[in-house]
Amino acid sequence: xxxxxxGGQAVLEGIMMMNRNAFAVAARRSDGGIEVRKDTYxxxxxxxxxxxxxxxxxxxxFADSMIVGTKALNFSAEVYGMxxxxxxPSRFEKFLDRVFGEKLEKVIMAAVMVFSFAAxxxxxxxxxxxxAGVFRKLTESETLIAFLEGLIRVLIFVTYIKLVSRMxxxxxxxxxxxxxxxxxxxxxxxxxxxxxNVRSSSKEHKRCGTSFLLIVMMISILVFMVVRVDxxxxxxxxxxxxxxxxxxxxxxxxxxxxxxxxxxxxIIAKPGLCMQALTTTEPDDSMIEVAxxxxxxxFDWKAYLRENFPDTxxxxxISRPEVRVTxxxxxxxxxxxxxxxxx
Length: 343
Description:
Blueprint: E1 6-11, E2 14-19, E3 22-28, E4 34-40, H1 57-80, H2 91-100, H3 104-132, H4 142-164, H5 168-188, H6 195-200, H7 209-226, H8 232-241, H9 243-258, H10 263-279, H11 285-298, H12 301-308, E5 323-327, H13 337-342
Parallel strand pairs: 4-5
Antiparallel strand pairs: 1-2, 2-3, 3-4
């Protein structure tokens, strides 16, 4: 395996792929075609050398991923809802439009991100602390309590994934997630980007966000074993304040393991790869086609193979489905009402 620099995310009936500052979202239209939207995003870490320092950059890269991910989800939701009839905006929607105007989308995006972050902190950091506190009646060992807190955190995460995976849209999203991983693995193992090669590639990948979350949980156990404070209020504050520290350490661990093929990196990555069994499912060929469309919009895989795998035979022609590509640089993406009705 050779590092390609590509990352991605599954969205509604589609996939987002990112390569450096360029990203593309590909989603399946109801008429069977594939809609691709290309855009660029410059990381917060480019604004200052300080933000690019190890253990600091991870926090801002995580924020970057949330911003790009939200944009990708918004686009896929537009494509996913093409066939739906337009509804008259509610009074509340009209009020928001009057107040915020063209900034409404950014305001909503910011609100969603803040709410999501607060909910994640509450569910995965504060709640395990409170539940682990019950065991203080049985033991005085802070080390054991910190370990139990981490174990409860993992159990909550697994339970959450199990519950949401029962939803049809989430099940299909997990299939697209598997397609994203397969596409990247196909390239990084020196195979031409064809449906057949992607299908035979692994659906687990070391640099997955699921692995990142598991590493966060494992690092948090070690951190909270060392950082000890008295009083429930102080403990809650410590869990919130130390989130950036834990995220920064976890990012470095994930990057080191994801870029290496050593036995140590394999050992570090193994728990995350096992956890991906919950968040990735084998995709069908139509989903693989979407993953390929997103990848080809931002990454020249043929040039990559020629440079890193010179012995690979690249097919002269490869059959591809209909793909319609738009670029954010050409103006806002829009589909007219008659196109929506036509699906």
